[in-house]
Amino acid sequence: MHDLSWRPGAAAARDHRARLNAGLRAFFSDQGVLEVETPLLSAGAPQDPAIESWRACAPDGVSGYLQTSPEYPMKRLLADGSGDIYQMARVFRGGEQGHRHNPEFTLLEWYRLGYDHHRLMDELVGLVHTVAALDPRWHRPGGGVRRLPYCDLFREALDLDPLSCTTDDCAAAAADAGLDLTGRLDRDAWLDALMSLVLAPRFPSDRLTLVFDYPESQAVLARPSEASPGCASRFELYWGDLELANGFHELTDPAIFLARRKQDRERRAREGQALPDIDAFFAAAMTSGLPDCAGVALGVDRLLMCLLGTRDIATVIDFPWGRA
Amino acid sequence: MATYSTSEFRGGLKILLDGDPQVIVENEFVKPGKGQAFNRVRLRNLRTGRVLEKTFKSGETVEAADVMDTDMQYLYTDGEFWHFMVPSSFEQYAMSQAALGDSAQWLKEQDVCVVTLWNGEPLSVTPPNFVELKIVQCDPGVRGDTAQGGTKPATLETGAVVKVPLFVEEGETVKVDTRSGEYVSRV
What we know:
The complex is a heterodimer of chains A (about 325) and B (about 190).
Chain A: H1 11-31, E1 34-35, E2 41-42, E3 55-57, E4 63-66, H2 71-79, E5 85-92, E6 104-113, H3 117-132, E7 145-149, H4 150-158, H5 167-176, E8 181-182, H6 187-199, E9 208-215, E10 231-239, E11 242-249, H7 254-270, H8 280-288, E12 293-299, H9 300-308
Parallel strand pairs in A: 1-5, 7-9
Antiparallel strand pairs in A: 2-4, 3-4, 5-6, 6-12, 9-10, 10-11, 11-12
Helix pairs in contact in A: 1-9, 2-8, 5-6
Chain B: E1 3-5, E2 14-17, E3 20-30, E4 38-45, E5 51-57, E6 61-64, E7 67-77, E8 81-85, E9 92-96, H1 97-100, E10 112-118, E11 121-126, E12 130-138, E13 151-156, E14 161-165, E15 173-177, E16 182-186
Antiparallel strand pairs in B: 1-6, 2-3, 2-6, 3-4, 4-5, 7-8, 7-10, 8-9, 10-11, 12-13, 12-15, 13-14, 15-16
């Protein structure tokens, strides 16, 4: 037997990926959004409790972090007056591997000045429909987008108020749904479990679903919502049960940013997670002033999976981790 | 005590859960982009055969099950216990009917099976994929009917009942696939 592990594994998807990339770039070119490039390797990293940065070390002892998203440097561009920008970025996340995850993947991230998250959701849906129409072989999402607030989704489907429920309430809702879960979870982790393992699997399989206004405890870098008290202006796009994109009406208040970062860091310390170095340039840019804007990051490999109707990310990546 | 973290989960891994040894049949990594990661796992209980689905918070650890597959020769049954021997060491193990389950019906003396040991105690037996057994009872054969699809039940020397083609006769030896319980050919 010859060793065949050298062979790329996504030959059938290769020309589709090239066509999709070209279609995405054409979309932004038509909209007058500027393509930018930012470094893969940075001195600091985000402190998100559930995202692990890869550390890269040079032989001389100099080390940095591979980006988990291009968000920080892109926001530095925005703060510098770049105007609307987008990027197709390779990003890296530690410990994420499965049928829907590869530790290295492609994010399409873009920012629109003066947009709020609702206007950006409209554009995001428009982008998916536009590129899906580029090739007659591709799946297209069914007509009509389900679009609802995070809290409504939980109240309607599980009779659970995500803002006031206890972990016991969440555990009971999970048990009702037949979810047998091991491990100590805080409320947000329970809400994640219910979202990923109970609610998303019930989304209509051929449709787009937009969930918006997440609990403030899951705000990340979204600004507090005016329409939904206790929530932040964050949204996610699903195609069927697959999470495709995450976006914000961006937080511009540096004080809130610093407070959340401190909280995240304390949480990481409490859980015994690595504490990456802080990105001081980004904090300084936030303080200098981020313009009012909305931004979103879309998983390009996953979009390609949906267009091709495949359930395994390894079928759209020639060299997935393990064979890279 | 050996343990496994969820990041080591993969098909075939044997873990101890709820006091029973279980084998991971399927492991799926589930994680919202910004949120908590989980491992959704399908497990088969090696003692009861029951399959269940369980979700672990990623990063949790579980105890490894000291489970080992060993080739053994089936020796005989005394009516209460079935006796097996490791050919290389002559070490003998006895199993009850309850532990044997459906495997008992395929066991012929001298055949080599895979005995699964848990903490050194036999847990289950996997008979050879194919066994050759003599028919001790079936209806008379239908002469000339060698190609038609009809079947009839035949009782084999071990007590198993399999469907055989109409032309097969009592006293003949047949080859059976123990995984499906289906007749393969005459021997």
